[in-house]
Amino acid sequence: xxxxxxxxxxxxxxxxxxxxxxxxxxxxxxxxxxxxxxxxxxxxxxxxxxxxxxxxxxxxxxxxxxxxxxxxxxxxxxxxxxxxxxxxxxxxxxxxxxxxxxxxxxxxxxxxxxxxxxxxxxxxxxxxxxxxxxxxxxxxxxxxxxxxxxxxxxxxxxxxxxxxxxxxxxxxxxx
Length: 175
Ligand code: 5GP
Known about the structure:
six-stranded mixed β-sheet, 175 residues, globular, Rossmann fold, single chain, 3 helices, alpha/beta, binds guanosine-5'-monophosphate, four-stranded antiparallel β-sheet, 10 strands
């Protein structure tokens, strides 16, 4: 159990399940991109731990860059997607894998995908650690999903509540 400010969180996905699943996703990416050299575009802040773990299991040549967006305030989506920090390099002609922590309404990843597609990458895939299918408001084509979860607020392993709670080895859910 973990209490942050006014909220209590309880264990949801333990460290073993999480790491095993991330390893499986990496193996799948190693297969799918065996003749390629993908560019991982990590959506900050929440995806940094997932991306790091995933990348340590990639055996293909790959590079990484970061984009920072924010659409959330506390535990409810504002529905406003904002690019805070842009890409350091163009993705034109690259095999891009967008790395997200969690897809909820899908608005963030839709917006980021559009921005990247505008730069004409060779291909664009999406990998997310968590996905809430019941919360989805726009169609998104996700190639790699760690876990599909119910529509509840989770923290840990990079995900925050009011910027706290990112530093856990497991995923916890609002009690
Ligand atoms: P979307 O645009 O798909 O609604 O939301 C995506 C972003 O909202 C994620 O990258 C994440 O920052 C935040 N988010 C969505 N659901 C949750 C959740 O259950 N917990 C936390 N901590 N953040 C969430």
